[in-house]
Each structure stands twice: as structure tokens, then as C-alpha cells.
Predict the 3D structure of the following.
Amino acid sequence: MKKNIFITLTLLFTFSSFVCQESQEMSNTSFEKVNKANYGLGSGVSLNFDDSTHIFNIGGMVQPRFLNTTIGDSAQDSKNYFGAKRAYFNFSGTLNNGLFSFLVQTNFSDSYPLLDAWAGYHPNKNLSIFFGQRMSPFNNLSMQIMEYNLQFASRNNLSQNFTESGREFGIFVESKFSLGNIGFKPIVAITSGDGKNSFGLSSSDTDQGGVKYGGRLNIYPFGFFKGDNEFLGHDTYREKSSKLMIGIASSLNQGTSHKVGEGHYYEDAPTDGTFMFFDNSGVFKLPNYLKNYIDILYKYNGFNFLFEYVNTAASNLQGISLNSAGSLLLEPTQISQYLVLGNAFNLQAGYLFKSDWSLDLKYGRSYYEFEKVNSILQNYDSMGAGITKYFSNRAVKAQLLASYVNFPEISQNNFLNIECLFQIKF
């Protein structure tokens, strides 16, 4: 009897031990974190860790191009250029289920390759705080679109005249909320006021002047766009209902030594577009630079329309001298020879067919603030037409752009550009 009881207890113990072991193995399997890697043409390599708690992306793009430029309405002054317009490498990611994010992006076709280097904190889905070097919200909408998402092969003339890279180093606070069916995106920021790479060429190359501060407010009367469609040149999402964005932006650069407030003067290696002024005691004194923008973006079912307007002005000009001795005072209208001052607008529209062909048009005009021959900003009329074809789920595209810029008062500066660009995102 005891023997049978012992055998029975032994079998029950063995079975229970087996069941416990299987349960533990199943439990360990259930809680094991999944790590995986994926690659998609156009979206790069995606590395997912701990059930996508942390996601890293590695990608980039190249833009080889051909450019023909004719200056002064004479075919004899035509020149051809071949080369890599842009060659990007980027590394981005999100950590702790999207609580933190980052981006590092470089352009190896540029002498100063660092474009973006920032970290972001997202306490909730409606609030984001960024610190580092990134695209500035102070500029027109076109300058907030990544170079590989542009509607045309090159940026419009408004962007080229009033900005450079459009990137600045600082702290940026962005929010997003809705009131009924109307969406709002307020943004405020404080930057170095010296553009990208504002830390300079060396330890002795420091920022000049004060900081730049400002903000932007985007209003969406019909609700938000799909995904990031407002930051894509074409209506690639093909909005099912009309989407409209009305944006206003303003910034004040407190003491700038660069023509558009995206650089600074360095005495040991002065660069184009930089300058330095003084007060009557020989101390550096720089003008304030104000920029105001209005943007209107409309997209529906493949059609896109964009209107942009900019106005710039200078202040704090009293007592400024061109030399350290204080003997050569700056005339009020003379500031237009150092800062881009005036107004400009840009209109562009296009339609993206379901076959991934796009036809696009643009037109722009500028008005200088002072009638000075040596003014940096000259009155111009610009117009252009482009054709774009996307391939491989829009990871590859070919663009052809013809643009003409007319300077009514300086006709010898008129130019015609024919640009052919091929892009691969990998």
C-alpha cells in the first residue's frame, strides 16, 4: 500500500514539475522582446528593438543633376554644369515608445556637411520640444520642406533670396490642437541668430550679436492634412477632401552680421554676405533684422497650390559706423547694401496624376525697399515650369525644370536655367 502511495506521489510530483517547467518556458517565450530589421527602398533600414520600444532608421539620398544657365539673354553666355547637387546621409530614431526622438543628417556635397542635429522630447502627442540644429519655423513654408520632397528641382526665388539653408541652432517648442473642426499649430523658438553651424570655424569664431526669437501659427480651417502632407511639395497623399493651411510667422534677429541672418562675421575669414559695424567708440554694433511671412497652402485630390509672402526690415541703425574710428556713418538707405530688405511673393501650383506624373508652374516677384543700384535685393520677375515623374513607390524621381528670372532694371543679369535632376532615396 505504502509502495503504491509512494509511486503515486512520485508520479504526481514528476508531472507537476513538468507542467511547471512548461509553464515557465511558455511564460518566458510570451515575454521575450522581439527585435527585427527591415529595409524598404525610399525608407531606408529600420531597426526595431524591444517590440518597437526603440526604433532607429538609417537612410539617405543622392541627386545627380545637369544644369544649363544662360545669362543676359544671350546664347553665347550659356554654361553647362554636371555634378551631385545633394548627397544626404541621415540617422534618426525614436526612444521609449516615442517619448524621445533625434535626427542627424549630413550633405556630403557641401563644404560644411552638417545639416540637422537635434534631439526631441514629446511628453504627449500634442506637444514637442526640440533642441539642436534643425529647419527653422520662422521661414516660409517652402523652407520647411526637406530638399528631397520639393515640388521643383530647385527652391523658388523667394526662398533663395531671403534664406540660405533655412536651418538654425536653438530650442523649439511646437504644439498641436483642435477646436471643433479647425486645427492649430503654434510654434515658438529661440535660436542663436547665426544660422547653421553657428558654433563657428574655430574656438575664436564665436556668435556675433544677440539671439533670434519668434514664432509661427498655422491654422487649418478644414482640419489637419494627412500625415506630413503639408511638408511635401506635391499632394502625394491625394487628400480626399479640401485641406487648407494659413500660416503666419515672424522673427526678430537682435544684432545680425549676415545679409539674411543665417551666418556671422569672422574677422580671420570673412565670407560672402557677412559684415561688421561699429559705434562711435569702436565697439561692435549690429542692426536688428525683422522678417514676417504669410503662407497659404491648399491641397485636394492631387492638386496643390501655395502662396508665400515675405517682408523684411532693419532697425537699431542710429549711430552705426562703417569703420572702427566712427568717422564713416551708415546712411539709413545704405543698409540695403548689407541686408536683404524689401518684399516678395511666390505662387506655385501643380497636379500629380495617378500615374505619378506631375505638371507644375510657379511665378514670383520682388520689390526692394530702397531704390539703390547696389541693393542686395533687386526687383525681379521669375517664372518656371516643371515636370516630375516618380518611380518605385516614389523612392525614385526624375525632374525637369525650366525657369527664367527677369531683372527689369538690370537686364544684363537676366538668366534662364534648364535643370534636369535625378533622385534616389535609399
Remarks:
- Confidence is low (pLDDT under 50) at residues 1-30.
- The first strand starts at residue 36 and ends at 40.
- Residues 158 and 340 are 11 Å apart (CA to CA).
